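User: Assemble these into one structure.

Assistant: Restating your components, then the assembled model:
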Amino acid sequence: DQQVKQNSPSLSVQEGRISILNCDYTNSMFDYFLWYKKYPAEGPTFLISISSIKDKNEDGRFTVFLNKSAKHLSLHIVPSQPGDSAVYFCAALRAYNTDKLIFGTGTRLQVFP
Amino acid sequence: DARVTQTPRHKVTEMGQEVTMRCQPILGHNTVFWYRQTMMQGLELLAYFRNRAPLDDSGMPKDRFSAEMPDATLATLKIQPSEPRDSAVYFCASGLQSSQPQHFGDGTRLSIL
């Protein structure tokens, strides 16, 4: 049973425009969420996170939005750059119980000129 | 810049052979994780350790997989005997207890023929 779902396996966006990557979760006990970015032949690297007490967290071109009632989060990248082309993983955590991250299956983002 | 180091980066072997993957966590990190990346499941947690003690290996096939931390600088994941369905990329990650994010190595790409 996939507790964290990324329903779009791929997304293609033109350079300069906004990229929106979506993530849904089923477990209401999750209280901390992270986005990781992965280039080919490399390990995932941390991008941005959000606690369930917030609904938005921003870091430069990256913003994560959390809608707890809908059990949905999204990552916005604006403006998108060709270097953003990678696989993006959403992950969730029950922060006060365990260190176990539950990952989604990833969305491959391609930013074209 | 501190990194998680995984060896080997690539491994090709025949079905039935023993496979050992190694991980050197970031110095000072007390939590070590083993993940497997597959197309269908994304990043699956196989096992994790805190202060070298195994905390959870529920994601790991017990009959053929084993994970150990002989010391604080080395974690190993063994498969014996290996099967073609074990072909995947295996990632090690390390972190501090109850603190995010986890830091990933660049993975071992395993192919079982």
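Chain B touches chain A through 27 residues (CB under 8 Å).
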